[in-house]
Every structure is written in structure tokens, then in C-alpha cells.
Amino acid sequence: VTLAGDPWTAGRVTPAEDLGPATAATAAADLAVAAYVSAAGLRIVEICAEYAATRRQFGRAIGDYQAVSQPLAEAYSRLAGIRDVLDGPFDDVDLAGPGTGERAARVRLIAVGAATHASYVGFQTQGGMGFVDGTELAHLGKRIRQIALAGEPRAAGIERAVGRLIA
């Protein structure tokens, strides 16, 4: 069983088209991971926004308190920006082109960071892992972490991406 509770499966993958050099396949994989984790992070924010709108404390919805609403809004804005980048047309993008692999690795790292942050915010919004264990929220948080750790981008791409994020 995986970290997220899903059973391991075995099968055969048949490529739909030849991606060419391995750099193109790596870039496509990095973009796919970025898309998956950012969508999962957005679902976490959606679940928690619903919860914050309905859960009442001291006579008010907890979403009325900035300590709850502001982190959710920040998590949403980070993930929405990534979604907008990934929503663009990729038909004309040369995945094997110079620099594309590093850019795809950078998008993946940013998406993983934003989705991981969203899961932390989501767990806090609902009271911590002890309260959400066994829910869709916990499952999504575990999937984000599991997928983020699987097949991390090349070290050189990470170093370049982190260097540009810090700059």
C-alpha cells in the first residue's frame, strides 16, 4: 500500500507517441506532476473554504477570522498562478529544446511547494491531522507528498531552480 493508502499496481505502459530524447520525457513528467499536485492543492483549498464558511466558533464562521481566511487565500493565489501557467497552450513547446527541462523542473518545484503549503494550511484549518485522518483532505495531502517525492527532478535542475527563486 502506498503512503496515500492506494494499492500498488503493476502493468505495462505503452507510449502514445514518441517523445524523442529523454529530456523531453523528463520535462513532460515534471509538467504532469506540477499539474497534478496543483490541482490536488486547489481541491484542498476548496474543501477547507467550504469548511471555514460553515464551521462556527464564537457565533461566527471561522472563515470570518483573518487567521483562517488569509492563509487559505494565499494558498489559493499561489496555486491559481501555477494553474494559469499550466493552462497555456503547449502544442508549440519543444520539450527537448534548450532550457525547457530546467524550466519544467522549476515549475514542478514551485507547484510542489505551493501544494504542500496548501495541505499544511488545510490541516490547520480543520484542526490538525488528528481531525482529518481518513478524509479526502488527508488523502490529498498524502498524495501530494508521495508524488512530490517520487522521481524528483535532476539535482542540476533543482539547483538552478532554487537559485532563481532565491535571486
Summary keywords:
167 residues; mainly alpha; 6 helices; globular
Give your account of this protein's structure.
- This protein is an all-alpha fold.
- Helices cover 66% and strands 2% of the residues.
- The protein contains 6 helices and 2 strands.
- It has helices spanning 22-54, 66-86, 100-125, 129-132, 136-149, 155-166, and strands spanning 56-57, 60-61.
- A two-stranded antiparallel ribbon has the order 1-2.
- Strand 1 (56-57) and strand 2 (60-61) form a beta hairpin.
- Helix 1 runs antiparallel to helix 2.
- The longest helix has 33 residues, at 22-54.
- The protein is globular and about 60 Å long.
- The model has no long low-confidence stretch (mean pLDDT 83).
User: For the terminal residues, how far apart are their CA atoms?
Assistant: 40 Å
- Write the element-wise H/E pattern from the N-terminal end onward: HEEHHHHH
Major sheet: arrangement of strands:
1-2
Low-pLDDT runs: none
Instruction: Name the average pLDDT.
Output: 83
What structural class do helix, strand and pairing data support? Answer: mainly alpha
Query: Number of DSSP helices?
Result: 6
Q: How many beta-strand segments?
A: 2
Helix content: 55-70%
Strand content: under 5%
C-alpha geometry: globular
Topology:
Blueprint: H1 22-54, E1 56-57, E2 60-61, H2 66-86, H3 100-125, H4 129-132, H5 136-149, H6 155-166
Antiparallel strand pairs: 1-2
Helix pairs in contact: 1-2, 1-3, 1-5, 2-3, 3-5, 3-6
